[in-house]
Amino acid sequence: MKVDDYSTSKRNDENSCKVGSRMSRIRCMIRGLELKTFIIGFVIIPAIVTGIYLHGQKVTYFLRPLWQSPPKPFIHMPHYYNTNVTMASLCNLHGWKLRDYPRRVYDAVLFSNEVDMLTIRWKELYPYITQFVLLESNSTFTSIPKKLNFAINREKFEFIKSRLTYGTIGGRFKSGENPFIEEAYQRVALDHLLRIAGIEDDDLLIMSDVDEIPSAHTIDLLRWCDGPPPIVHLNLNNYLYSFEFNLDHKSWRASVHQYQKGTTRYVHYRQSDYLLADSGWHCSFCFRTISDFVFKMKAYSHTDRVRFSHYLDPKRIQKVICSGADLYDMLPEEYTFRELIGKMGPIPHSYSAVHLPSYLLKNADKYRYLLPGNCIREDG
């Protein structure tokens, strides 16, 4: 084609675009776009936006080692124990001294709906607790109304009736408020309930969630020995869904305090640099029914992790439980790429039921769902 013919053809196309229908003009505009521009604008950019929406949280957690430094390391304290070793010898092994008489011990918890976990916890600690202190609210931390589940199931806890201080508190039901504010409000109320229970200076106070269970011998050791730091965090074996999935050995929020009036406050964050090794079990999301899983996911302080409604689908939850995957499809919360990559993917199955709470094993038929090989849950 000659140059004059090409110029004439181009002018004719331009004229036809000017006088044509709206659809014709749109087609002309598309023809005018370069293929590269079209791909970027209509394929790559939407794909990036969709990827950020679906997986942005994963990207943030994967890059966590770049934007957040690890916390100050704990001072790890060795933990010695054997049933055939005397308490005097155990105190001495830790560098402590045997007391003439044991300290009084108060176990205080906020309660939501973990009836089985509370039973296992109190049966484990029963011989060494002076007073069990329990507070429950008619509101979740996320301001969802709930039943007073302990009151409903109180007959199951007759064995601690003479040593129980029980209280209730009305929720504030402030929709849209940060859940941690409601949680802090309830913990302050638990401080008041402890004073009603009669706690005094130098008594031991266990601060931990219901599913963070100190071993009985740990509490016995701390009540009989003089010399432990006034605040000791407990290093618990960290399980998820049941004692089949041992996530790691890094649970540390549970703590034991030598109570001091006006100073000791019931909280659930780090308060000391001291961490006593192998001090019990943390069994998170260890529920009997799928409905309990759904309730917990909507009720506790990290409800923002439910980013999509299908996370609450019972069939999905059951599949996640049996595979050892993450309920929220999140990456591990680690501070180094080595640890993060090492913990990616489902938790390996464990078939060991050694060194678990004795009451659990003595009543294995009742709590079969918590033991290895029994991941199927009731609907609820």
Automatic annotation (TrEMBL):
Keyword Glycosyltransferase in record: yes
EC primary class: transferase
Lineage, broadest ranks: Eukaryota, Viridiplantae, Streptophyta, Embryophyta, Tracheophyta
An annotated Gene Ontology molecular function: beta-1,4-mannosylglycoprotein 4-beta-N-acetylglucosaminyltransferase activity
Gene Ontology CC, one term: membrane
Protein name: Beta-1,4-mannosyl-glycoprotein 4-beta-N-acetylglucosaminyltransferase
One Gene Ontology term from the biological process aspect of the record: N-acetylglucosamine metabolic process
Matches recorded under InterPro entries: Glyco_trans_17
Entry keyword set: Glycosyltransferase, Membrane, Transferase, Transmembrane, Transmembrane helix
EC number(s) reported in the record: 2.4.1.144
Bilayer-crossing regions: 33-54
Organism for this UniProt entry: Helianthus annuus
